[in-house]
Specification:
The protein has 456 residues and is an alpha+beta fold. It is built from 14 helices and 23 strands.
């Protein structure tokens, strides 16, 4: 009898200690609607690659592959010295030449710098205009460092390495990098199943087949009502209309009429269940404090005046094939028909040729100047953001929005449901889960069979 009690107390002590201290080992199972590798902030890239800099959970820039940096010539000349003894997953040493080549390939002509080159162990950037927030911009997912392998797949220096998983392109296993420069992750691996519907994700979570799944903003309240353990970021995804300045909407007044014809409040209240915030500015209110200066109310009478009797036929598409944005596009089409436009909703496959495109723009940078620069790049705007003071930022936003080619509608958070065994999950300021810091809880089911046999 005594040995059985002793072992029970021993196991209880292990479990109690495990609940407060991260444990090494285990595979976290993550499911997503998105593609594994597509897009600069895809989950595969974030697991396997690092940038020269990174943004910590508090929104501050910190060293990553670059151990230190400095600027000269009024922030027009930057030097980032690489951390020594860093290797790609295949063993290739990280060099300044490889880093410069990766950065050049990442953005080609649309770089926030004029030139980038290797100088000894440093990566050197020059810019025509001052770039005081270049360290913050280099933390963006677009600028993660990688190199092409013989097999053609990208290889990085990140906390996890992609491993072969057979012929299923929708599933991948990422093994912990034991020699990671920033310390080995607690997890042994992360298994990612991509292109999974929200219904299938939630079902897998409910039966213990998944540890982390997505929760669309419009379903966050539903998830909480179903007693799912949820975690949500600040509003980091801007839902906006991109309007073509050519074709039937070449007249700026017609584009202004579209901006005034959308009922943002209805989208916010009905489709997105009051998650996030209504937006008429490019940057969220918590970054600038001046978002209220941009009117967000619908004004269908003024829209009719601007339209001036014109009744053009226009096409509207969502660039995202997900159900949430498809429903949003249908609702916007109803709004615009009420405002006097003839609107045809077309499939996301035709978005590149549509007159109006519903887009989801991700806010990566915690700093307002870097974030606004990022948005202007995405919208092909020629407006320059000269300084980070609120007056200059407001003026730049006003000039962009006056063209009525990019119409902000809503800011949404990124939300997830988490399994019971997941510990220490935090979200980065851009809303993505920080998986290298995650651990899995210890339970009695994890005790080897021979331990219980010893109590007989």
């Amino acid at each position: 009898m005594f040995p059985r009690i002793a072992i029970s107390l021993f196991l209880f002590g292990i479990c109690a200690n495990a609940s407060t201290r991260p444990q090494y080992g285990g595979t976290a199972r993550v499911e997503t609607q998105r593609d594994l590798w597509q897009g600069p902030d895809s989950i595969a890239r974030r697991l396997t690659m690092d940038g020269l800099t990174a943004i910590d959970a508090n929104g501050d820039v910190k060293p990553a592959l670059a151990a230190q940096w400095s600027s000269q010539s009024g922030d027009r000349h930057w030097e980032f010295r690489l951390r020594p003894n860093v290797r790609f997953h295949d063993g290739t040493p990280l060099t300044a030449e490889l880093a410069a080549a990766s950065l050049t390939a990442d953005c080609q002509a649309a770089c926030p710098w004029t030139t980038v080159r290797a100088v000894g162990p440093a990566v050197v950037f020059t810019t025509d205009e001052p770039q005081p927030d270049l360290p913050e911009q280099l933390a963006r997912a677009q600028f993660l460092i990688s190199r092409a392998t013989a097999a053609g797949a990208p290889d990085g220096t990140g906390p996890f390495a992609a491993t072969p998983t057979g012929n299923d392109p929708s599933t991948a296993i990422f093994a912990a990098n034991d020699d990671y420069w920033n310390g080995r992750p607690f997890l042994d691996a992360v298994e990612v199943r991509s292109r999974r519907s929200i219904r299938d994700q939630w079902l897998d979570l409910s039966v213990g087949a998944a540890d982390l799944v997505e929760v669309p903003s419009g379903l966050l309240r539903t998830a909480q009502q179903q007693h799912l353990k949820t975690i949500a970021s600040s509003p980091v995804d801007l839902i906006a209309l991109q309007i073509s300045p050519t074709g039937p909407l070449a007249d700026e007044k017609l584009r202004q009429a579209i901006a005034l014809g959308v009922d943002r409040a209805a989208l916010f209240n009905v489709i997105f269940q009051k998650q996030g915030e209504v937006a008429a500015s490019l940057l969220p209110s918590y970054q600038t404090g001046y978002a209220f200066l941009f009117p967000a109310e619908r004004n269908i009478e003024r829209a009719a005046e601007l339209r001036g009797g014109a009744n053009p036929q226009i096409t509207l598409a969502s660039e995202d094939s997900g159900a949430e944005l498809q429903l949003t596009a249908e609702r916007i089409a109803i709004n615009l028909r009420e405002a006097g436009f003839r609107v045809q909703v077309v499939s996301s496959a035709a978005a590149s040729h549509a007159d109006v495109v519903l887009r989801r723009l991700h806010l990566e940078s915690p700093g307002p100047r870097a974030a606004l620069t990022e948005f202007l790049e995405n919208s092909a705007s020629t407006v320059a953001v000269e300084t980070s003071d609120p007056e200059n930022l407001y003026r730049a936003e006003r000039d962009v929005l006056a063209q009525s080619t990019l119409v902000p509608l809503l800011y949404l958070p990124r939300s997830y449901a988490v399994g019971e065994r997941v510990r220490d999950l935090r979200l980065a300021p851009d809303g993505n889960p920080i998986l290298p810091n995650v651990s899995l809880a210890f339970s009695l089911a994890d005790v080897p069979a021979q331990t219980s046999g010893a109590s007989q």
